Amino acid sequence: MARRRTAVVRGKALEGVRKGGARARAGLAHLADRIIDIAPRVPVRDLTTLREQFPGLGPEEIADRLVAGAAKATATVGAGVGAAAMMPVPPAMPTELAAEVTGVAAIELKLIAELHEVYGVRPAGTLAQRSTVYLNSWSQERGIEATKPSTVSAAMNSRMKRELRQRIVKRTVRNLPNLMPFLVGAAVGAVMNRRDTRKLAARIRDDLRKVQVPWDELPALPALERPADALPEHALELDMGAGRHRKDDDPG
Predict the structure, then answer these.
(1) Tens digits of per-residue pLDDT, 204-242?
(2) Has residue 190 got a pLDDT over 80?
(3) For residue 60, what are the CA distances in angstroms to 109, 128, 210, 231?
(4) Of the candidates 99, 78, 106, 108, which has an alpha carbon nearest to the alpha carbon of residue 177?
(5) Which of 94, 180, 208, 225 could share a disulfide with 119, CB 3.0–4.6 Å?
(6) How many degrees, rounded to 5, is the angle at CA 119 between CA 116 and CA 125?
(7) What is the DSSP string of 150-215?
(8) CA–CA distance, 176 with 28 (Å, rounded to integer)
(9) Cα–Cα distance between 226 and 85 in angstroms, integer?
């Protein structure tokens, strides 16, 4: 009798694990789709705008400022979720976590796009095509050689979306311990996000330097179009200081 009860309990436990795993996979897939959907909505400053906002600075100096601003922005997101986790009853933590993941993704996608501008390797194609390049770069944590036609597709077809979703899910699962500061508080949540954004930026910059085009050799490029339903700038600020240099934004 005891053995039978144990088998029943084990069976129910396994069923619960299977259902929980299915829900988790479905949630991650939905999260990946949200990131894919918001990518074309991220407003990106082109090189002309960046040079106007940071007069007298070269590519590396502007890149340093962008990375410092992005790290500060993702740290703010991490601090918010960390603070929520410290509450006696965390409010809708799965929702909070999803908001953090998508918020960090949007900030880092903007950073990646603007680093492409700074290093003179803007991907060819439409807004949607460039967004696909940046998504690939973000999901693989690598700088994409955007000048190669194979890295830019004419459209986000079902196969590409499926593969991209899988990469985003893998990256999200890998980073969950850092993106989920349960019981660690705002300070640690902020530090984790700041560190990870800087590590991502370092990898991207190393790759972009290999294909960098000097500013004086760049052909005239059209201004970047602004998405019709752009995400709010205040939520994505990397550094809008128009050349101001604040002590807390120093790289390093």
Answers:
(1) 999 999 999 999 999 988 999 888 888 887 667 666 544
(2) no
(3) 19, 27, 13, 27
(4) 78
(5) 208
(6) 40
(7) GG--SS--HHHHHHHHHHHHHHHHHHHHHH--TTTHHHHHHHHHHHHHHHHHHHHHHHHHHT---G
(8) 11
(9) 36
pLDDT confidence of residue 189 = 57
Integer Cα distance of 231 and 102 in angstroms: 12
Distance CA 8, CA 197 (A): 46
Helical H runs in 86-119? 93-118
Give 242's contacts (C-beta < 8 A, 6+ positions apart): 52, 53, 54
Spatial separation of the C-alpha atoms in residues 244 and 21, rounded to whole Å: 48
Cα distance between residue 69 and residue 76, in whole Å:
11
Q: Tell me 138's DSSP state.
A: H
pTM > 0.90:
no
d(CA 55, CA 86): 42
Q: Which residue has the higher pLDDT, 14 or 232?
A: 232
* CB of 62 closer than 8 Å to CB of 50: yes
Banded model confidence at residue 185, pLDDT cuts 50, 70, 90: very low
In angstroms, the CA 210 to CA 214 distance is 12
